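Good morning C.,

I know you're traveling, so I'll keep this short. The sequence:
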Amino acid sequence: MKNTPPTSSSEHVTPPADSSQIKLLRALLIVTILADIGGFVTTVTGGYGLEFALPLGIFLLIAIGSLVALRRGISFPARVLLPAALYLMVTAFLMFPSGYGLHDINLLTYSLVISLASLTLGQPGIVAFTALVILAVFGIGIAEMRGILVSPTSALTLPVTPFIISIIVLAIAFILRALINLFNETLRRAQQSEQEVAKRNAELQTFNVGLEQTVHERTASLEKRAAQLQTIAELAQAISQVQNPNEIFSAASKLISERFGFYHVGIFLTDHDRENVVLQAANSEGGQKMLARGHRLALGTGVVGFAAQTGKPRIALDVGADAVFFNNPDLPDTRSEIALPLSYGEQTIGVLDVQSVIASAFSEDDFRVLGTLANQLAIAIENVRLLSEARASAKQVEEVYNAFVRTQWSRTNEKLGHAGFRYNAGRIEMLEPAADEGAASNSLSAGQLDPSAKNRGSVAVPVKLRGETIGMLNIEAHDPLKQWRADEVSLVEAVAERAALAMENARLFQDARRRAAKERMIAEATSHITSSMNIENILQATAAELERVLGGSEVVIQFNKDAA
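The tokens, ready to paste straight into the viewer:
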């Protein structure tokens, strides 16, 4: 059984006073002391006698003692002695020979006694002091009616007088009790409202603190997100301006490392045999060492090899505890790593490897942003590869076309039988091969003037057809000292270019006419041959048509004896 400390009787009568009650008692005591001092001085100087001065003096001493005790934290004397002393002083005034008993005006002071008791002791004080006041009223009334107390108004005291006064006292006590209950309820509601307001203020303050923290976190998150989006945009812009894969790799690794603050960023590509991933670019010092020695990993080895083999991202939040992690002495400070596959369509072409010196450094936002960067990087790599293949194909087509143009114009020159034409003094002359060789020896490069003194008034411009030179355009001025201006040379080049296109169109037109004539003759010959219904007539028609088409050739048609 748990022992409880003993409590005094006072603790059972009234609860301990709170701070508000102590303040009220202190104020009442100070007012009482000041009023008592005033009354005592007035009594002494006015010559009212010891019967008035003595109660006032005793009451003053009790009030001062209660105030001293209250200042030391003892509230019980003030709560009990203050209304009790006032009660005794009023009773003494009513009972002195100079008093008027139940007809004395001081009788009204009993209402102050009950009020004071209600303030200091609450409802128990009202009941107790109401009973004491009624007892005093009946005692004084009986004493007056029996002649024990004689006053100028004692003859007016009737047997009913104490009852009437007691009823009035009970009414006052009832009203005070109702007022106290109302005051206590109002105070309780006020305290409850104050507590609710304090609670709401605390909740509001907590909400404000949480809101500020949330705003700060959201702001930091938005700033980080904006920086990440800016990194994506800058990387996309940098990739779009770079056409060399090695430059793309280097720019991407440096940009990701600078913007995100990662320890190491490496880019791997899958080899042709799809057995290893080879490091192509890295930003860290250890990565440069790995790059210098041609670092590669087998598919399925480590975080990078796992991502390359499966085509799925791989995150190692603590590389020391991750079984898939492959220890790398060139990157000893790595604590967390993420490998994102570079996928184009259904094929994994490489891996973006990012490492940090902080454990669990990669958040969900980092995963999404790095995934976006990996997708853009994969698209850029594939675009560069397609561009390289397209350029190689275009170069090959250009070489084939140039060879075709050279061959066709060589045949055309052979068919023409002369080297070119010369326009001089309104006449057009054909150039003989010997003259053409001399002109070719004196020809100049495109747009260049002849540096020699004897040919100072000459300019030679190549006639080019889609980059292939098919001839030379030589112009000699009448003035051998003529200085050719740049606009004149540009004009000659433009004329040469249009002349080349016109000659090519003419050549193509002639070739088309020849092919059309050939097709027409073949069609006519075929028509004549197929019109016959026996072998001899068909053979005769075939020989005749070949002789007509080939012009005076001997045609022999002979059967193969071994055909049977």
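Safe travels,
E.
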